[in-house]
Amino acid sequence: MKSLLIVHHSLTGGTLQMAQAAATGAGREAGVTVRLQPAAGTGPQALLECDGYLFACPENLAAMSGVMKDFFDRCYYPALDRIQGRPYAVLICAGSDGSSAARQIERIATGWRLRDIAPPLIVCTHAQTPEEILRPKKIGEPDLARCEELGATLAAGLALGIF
Length: 163
Ligand SMILES: Cc1cc2nc3c(=O)[nH]c(=O)nc-3n(C[C@H](O)[C@H](O)[C@H](O)COP(=O)(O)O)c2cc1C
Known about the structure:
Layout: E1 2-8, H1 14-27, E2 32-38, H2 44-49, E3 52-60, E4 63-64, H3 66-79, E5 87-94, H4 99-112, E6 115-116, E7 121-124, H5 130-134, H6 141-160
Parallel strand pairs: 1-2, 1-3, 3-5, 5-6, 5-7
Antiparallel strand pairs: 3-4
The structure holds flavin mononucleotide.
């Protein structure tokens, strides 16, 4: 049995819906256990125990969200040289961009020598004003379907031993 760790952080709920959709897609794969965990409660042991990863967070101030960064700060050295070669993918929820957050996570994953199985999946909520940005988010079905498919792809590859 293989295991997929989905680490997530979300301020206004958008990323959480994306991570949950990915977990739903991955959960259809019989040979894979899915662990959906908030970044704040996740430490290096979970990384060591799982065979593949999905990292999911919003872009805040042209960077990954601080709580997600804290997860990587706490886990980077304890996991270094112990998880190389494992597959991963990235989910970003952004107002209008998301590329900076994705790039930051990719650089950390490169340091860990993980294998990306897909380009970062960025969902833009098009929130522009302070009111829109702080409002709870509702991610549309087409975007949730993309997240679900990415979770399913990662899980299928793990189960089949492709990655
Ligand atoms: C403090 C703050 C800074 C933000 N900075 C950016 C940014 O640099 N680029 C961007 O595309 N969106 C930015 N956003 C918008 C969020 O990425 C967007 O609202 C996203 O949907 C939040 O995801 P969440 O619902 O998972 O928290 C920012 C939001 C906040 C609260």
